[in-house]
Design a protein that fits this description.
The complex is a heterodimer of chains A (502) and B (83).
Chain A: H1 2-17, E1 27-30, E2 35-37, H2 38-54, E3 61-65, H3 70-82, E4 85-89, H4 95-105, E5 110-112, E6 122-124, E7 147-153, E8 161-166, H5 167-181, E9 188-191, H6 199-210, E10 213-216, H7 224-234, E11 239-242, H8 244-248, H9 251-254, E12 264-267, H10 274-283, E13 288-293, E14 303-307, E15 325-326, E16 331-336, E17 339-340, E18 347-353, E19 370-375, E20 378-391, E21 397-402, E22 406-409, E23 412-415, H11 416-427, E24 431-437, E25 443-450, H12 456-463, E26 475-479, H13 492-500
Parallel strand pairs in A: 1-10, 3-4, 3-5, 5-6, 9-10, 9-11, 11-12, 12-13, 25-26
Antiparallel strand pairs in A: 1-2, 7-8, 13-14, 14-15, 16-17, 16-18, 18-20, 19-20, 20-21, 22-23, 24-25
Helix pairs in contact in A: 2-3, 5-6
Chain B: H1 5-19, H2 41-55, H3 61-66, H4 70-80
Helix pairs in contact in B: 1-2, 1-4
Classes of the chains: A alpha/beta (502), B mainly alpha (83).
């Protein structure tokens, strides 16, 4: 009991640090169009908090229609301070998928800055009279509700899978990163990610709990990587977390780059190549470069490897930088053929237990992803990451590959089965999706579909309401019949050959 | 021999048709990424690299950032292409 009381008090003080009263005229958030000080951001937060408080909202979860503006950040902070769990929704993403998320999360209330006719639960928030009185006090939250946010990742059953992350898990991750890297008020963070991708939470919560500022990258079509480089230079960004392919695309520009402002460059979401680390190091000579690793189920990041120009190349495996060391207070084991591995150079599926790891999926689905083990005399629940790793001589973990057909596209996790399922439902024919790679290292999907009456453009258009844009195959190829392997399953290796020979 | 803006646009059109995988694509000076389905951050770099090799030029980062449509790209090539 006392333990729980302490934890709640700890979380309240974490929330008090978020857009703290002690941060005033320093810049908190800026976008291409405008900027906003901590005082102004707090005002916006109080307005939304007041709205929730006046209506005595008791909901566990509140949806937020997110876009790249200050209001979105204020809404997230207000829901956090109110004690509810936030569920980010992108209005421009696949409509049916959004509806599925709203229904399965049981959302009764969705906050939005603008009209959004697609969903009936939406509430617009106007200026609340009386909200200004809240400004100078700590906003007291309802501490009994354990969940901080609910995100949906791609699910192999064909439908999105809910990942509920606990408040203490979020606090553990953000507090650890803040103290490990020592971010300061003068830091300038970049937030380049979609709000439904958990690395975005790092990109805004670390600055907003430190008193630093955060730049929200506009969501323009087309030139994201070029835009990122431009913004990094123009706005003197000092901390950024990027997906490796974002940088490898613009490698040729990095060769003549010399940015002295960047203090920390983090890479996450995909395998990080040593060669890219070298290029980045030359372009940002003062930046500390780290590889951060973590599934959504492990709350943003769960391991870290600090890349060093003199010593790291020898540690790379197949040119890939290690994922390093698991964060403190966690336990991990490597599982191979249902047995826990030991010995020095062991390898196996990485399974992790500890404060940042979820103990169940939303609605207790996919229980097979967990492993209950006796550990030092206590029962512990381990999450099976599906990542095959090994340990090197220095005790660092190395990522070797996935155990299933999950891929990362622009950092987003995509289950090939979800894509295949949606295409099959649509065309009523068999389909197989393979993964292809461009020269620059970015991957994309190619779908093979049995000959049917629908045209490629029609299929893509229909898929746009079912799948998020990054999940839609770039190519759709019709095929008369599928090559089969000896188990009478579609032979994807052969399909890849067919694609190569085209 | 110096190319005219129309000749340049013609060459760019050929590049676009291959890179964006649309054999009948018609480009115009005002065209932007929003109008071409496969024009994303991945194919954008691919297109630029291809344009650079066809016209034997190097487009510096500052120029790449300031270009907002096909016309800007053609105008840059006209100013800086081989004489």
């Amino acid at each position: 009991m006392l333990h729980l009381f302490m934890k709640k008090a700890q979380y309240q003080s974490f929330l008090n640090k978020l857009v703290s009263i002690s941060f005033t005229d320093e810049m908190a958030v800026y976008t291409e169009e405008n900027q906003c000080s901590y005082r102004e951001l707090r005002q916006e937060i109080c307005n939304i908090f007041y709205f929730l408080n006046q209506r005595k909202i008791k909901d566990t979860r509140i949806g937020i229609i997110c876009s790249n503006n200050v209001w979105t950040l204020a809404a997230i902070c207000a829901v956090m301070k109110y004690g509810a769990s936030f569920v980010p929704i992108i209005a421009t993403e696949a409509q049916d998928r959004n509806q599925n998320i709203i229904d399965s999360a049981g959302l009764n209330l969705i906050l939005s800055k603008e009209e959004c006719p697609a969903h009936k639960q939406i509430q617009l928030i106007e200026k609340q009279k009386g909200a200004e009185k809240l400004m100078e006090q700590d906003l007291q939250q309802r501490l009994d509700q354990p969940e901080a946010y609910l995100l949906f990742t791609s699910g192999s059953s064909g439908l999105p899978k809910g990942v509920p992350v606990a408040k203490f898990a979020l606090m553990h991750c953000i507090d650890h990163l803040n103290s490990e890297f020592g971010f300061v008020k003068s830091d300038n963070f970049l937030q380049p990610f979609q709000w439904t991708f958990d690395v975005s939470i790092f990109s805004y919560l670390c600055p907003l709990t430190t008193g630093a500022s955060c730049y929200l990258l506009p969501n323009k079509n087309g030139m994201k990587s070029i835009q990122i480089l431009n913004v990094i230079r123009q706005h003197e960004i000092t901390v950024a977390c990027l997906v490796p392919s974002m940088m490898s695309l613009v490698k040729k520009y990095l060769e003549s780059w010399n940015d002295l402002d960047m203090r920390f460059l983090f890479f996450a979401g995909e395998a990080f190549l040593d060669e890219l680390a070298r290029t980045v190091h030359k372009a940002f000579p003062k930046a500390e470069i780290s590889n951060l690793y973590g599934p959504t189920e492990g709350t943003i990041f769960i391991s870290q490897y600090n890349w060093k120009p003199q010593s790291s190349s020898s540690e790379a495996q197949n040119g890939v930088v290690p994922i390093g060391q698991i964060f403190p207070n966690h336990h991990w084991v490597l599982l191979k053929e249902d047995r826990i591995q030991d010995g020095e150079k062991k390898e196996g599926e990485l399974c992790i237990a500890g404060p940042q790891i979820i103990d169940q999926y939303f609605n207790k689905k996919n229980e097979e992803q967990f492993l209950d083990l006796e550990f030092n005399g206590k029962g512990k629940r381990f999450y099976r990451t599906g990542d095959w790793v090994k340990v090197n001589e220095k005790g660092n973990l190395l990522f070797l590959g996935r155990l299933d057909e999950q891929v990362q596209i622009q950092g987003h996790r995509v289950e090939i089965k979800e894509v295949e399922h949606q295409i099959q439902m649509l065309v009523g024919k068999d389909c197989a999706v393979i993964v292809n790679e461009k020269k620059a290292g970015e991957i994309f999907l190619t779908a093979f579909v049995l000959n049917c009456e629908m045209k490629v453009a029609e299929i893509k258009k229909a898929l746009a309401v079912k799948l998020n844009s990054y999940m839609i195959p770039r190519e759709i190829i019709f095929i008369e019949q599928f090559p089969l392997n000896k188990n009478a399953k579609i032979d994807k290796i052969e399909l890849k050959q067919i694609w190569n020979n085209r | 021999m110096e190319q005219s803006i129309d000749e340049i646009l013609n060459e760019i059109e050929k590049v676009f048709r291959t890179v964006f995988d649309e054999p009948d694509l018609q480009i115009s000076k005002s065209m932007t990424a929003n109008e071409v389905e496969l024009w994303d951050s991945l194919s954008h770099i691919e297109m630029l690299t291809e344009v650079e090799s066809v016209f034997e030029i190097n487009i510096p980062f500052e120029e790449v950032v300031s270009m907002s449509n096909v016309g800007d790209l053609a105008a840059y090539i006209l100013r800086n292409g081989k004489q």
